[in-house]
Fold:
Amino acid sequence: MTFEYTPYILPLIAAELVIVSVAFYSWRHRSTNGALALSLMSISIFIWVFGNIFEITGVELETKYFWGVFKYIGVAFTPYGWLIFSITYSDRAKILTRRFLILTAVIPTITVLLALTTKWNRLIWSEYHLDQQGDYFSIGVSYGFWFWVHFAYSYLLLLSGAVLLIRVLWRRQGMYRWQVVAMLIAVLAPWIGNILYFTGNTPFPFLDFTPFTFTITVTAVAWAIFGFRLVDITPIARDHVVDSMREGMIVLDERGYILDINSAAARMIDVPIASVIGKTAEVVFRPWSHVVERFRDVMEAKDQITVREGEEERSYEVRLSPLKSAEGQFMGRVIMLRAMDEEALQQERDLLERRVQQELAERLHTQVLLRESEERFRQIVENANDFIYRTDVNGNFTYVNPSTLKIMGFASEQELLGRHYLELAAPEYRHKLKRVYEHQFLRKTKSTYYEFPAVTADQEIVWLGQNVQLILDDGQAVGFQAVGRDITELKQAQEALALSRDQALGASRFKSQLLSRVSHELRTPLGGILGYAELLQYNAFGSLTEKQHSIVDNIIESTNYLTVIVNDLLDESQIESRSLSLHNEYFNPAELLEKIRNTMSMLANKKGLAFHTEIAPDLPAELYGDMNRLQQILINLVGNSIKFTKTGEVRINLKRPAPALWSMEVRDTGVGIPVSDQQNIFEPFRQVSNSITRENRGSGLGLAITKQLVELMGGKIKVESSAEAGSLFTITLPITNAPGE
Ligand code: ADP
Structure:
């Protein structure tokens, strides 16, 4: 085989490159609808062009013959591939049964077999020879019988594929426009090419134009399928979904022209799909003119329509919704139609009826509940012992409960409704009352309580205590409501109580005054008695017998005791009437202690008790206070200690327990005080019952006066003791300066 280069093969090689790319690309994307068929078709075309290239460049007749028949493998199967592609792309793959594929492949297979052996059977080429065109030789052939069979068959497949595709494309709108254009080019290219070839209108009459046109076809198809990656599946999916829907779908443009309609809708209106696209809804829906009228300018609706079809009446559910562009511009409307058969209609009716009945029952139930709850509250309000009333924003009664009427002595609510609440208040309280509620209104105080006297219909005074709440509507006060009760008895009781308290206080004051006057008056004659008794004792009125001496001693002792009691009573009454005042000054605590020592140590020693005093070194040399009263306190405590101690010692310590405090401790080893009595001993006239208290005289006022004096000084007194274990009394006082220092 010898080959010779000729520039005619350049376009063929270019076509071959395109086809190889398409074949490869569609093979890789063979899951896309139609891609596998496209890939097979590309391979056929590739073989066809491949044979063509070698046929052209072959020098000898036999070489040209060999490649000339070889290319029939491609020639015979290209239309076959086209048909399969068209079927798949138009989503009718279910007709591609094994049987269908084998049957349709019979003629192409025979064509290939006959072509490869045409030298002997002469059914494809009956004769072939070298043809000279200038200095270029081509193979000239006369076609045999089978060639025409193949020819006719090929065009039949080509035509069928074209029809299938055009039908799909016809219904495709808008967004698929470029796919439509590409597919139209794909469909038309082989036809135009062939027409040109057979009519001899080509620049190269000896060059078969068909492979080129198929290259265009394959490229255009590839563009259509893969050029728009996002939509390559959509048209098919759309057809599949929309056409298999049971609901009818009609798309109208903004002028009411039908852009798209699916099979279900076409069936419902009973029109062929192809004949309605591009027509107005009025024309197409002529039998349904009342429906068209009803929805003419409606953008959005959900409704039921009934149309007459011959004898029959059919019902449809209609849904209308507007179609808008991404910019929100109105582009048309979508109409969805759902046929309602008798059963569905009945179901719908039942559902509606049931819903109404449910709703009715619910409303009834709510009303009953509401009425019940109203009744409950009415019962509570009307039977309440409390008065309950409402006023409008001005304060005029809008509601009064029976208790209000009863308390205020009115017979019917008509006598009160519309009247102002202030009219019922006691005149001297009206001004105050008005201020209280104006304040509540302005401040928006939720609730207030106020007591005031009111005047009943019989001109009697009743005291009322009422809780008043603002009635708010949307944050605005629209009135008041009050709940309250007749507190006249309570008020009277309170007044009586206050009166008796005042009386008791007065009596107590009188007692204290009496006590202090009496004790004060007693002290002068007591002084006289003591003076004369002492003169007797010193034999100022002549010498006394032994017996007389002992009597005078008794008189002196009793008078002394009486003086102590009178003094105590005076102190107590003064403290109680708060007329006792302290005389504070700077004093030396060591001096205080010395004075006590002088008066008390003899008494202790007489009983055989040790007597100790001690001052802590950190105690200030000067303290501010009432030294006489402090002395009185210490004498009381030390006197008790000596009195209640039989053996042992009595000890006084002055200390500074904290920087701002000083203390006086009186400790003894005496009988002690049971814990249960420790609180009582500070109350007036309280004594612990024991042999000593029984044997000794005592007023029971000493500790009471001590405690009150200590407290008057701003200090505290405490006792630590237990029976038979001695006692410790501690008085703690603040360290203070004279006022103004
Ligand atoms: P009285 O005049 O009886 O002493 P006080 O008020 O001074 O009255 O004391 C009340 C009582 O507290 C005393 O009667 C005594 O029972 C008890 N008491 C006070 N100090 C002591 C103490 N140091 N030891 C034991 N008992 C005491």
Observations:
- The radius of gyration is 65 Å.
- Confidence is low (pLDDT under 50) at residues 229-234.
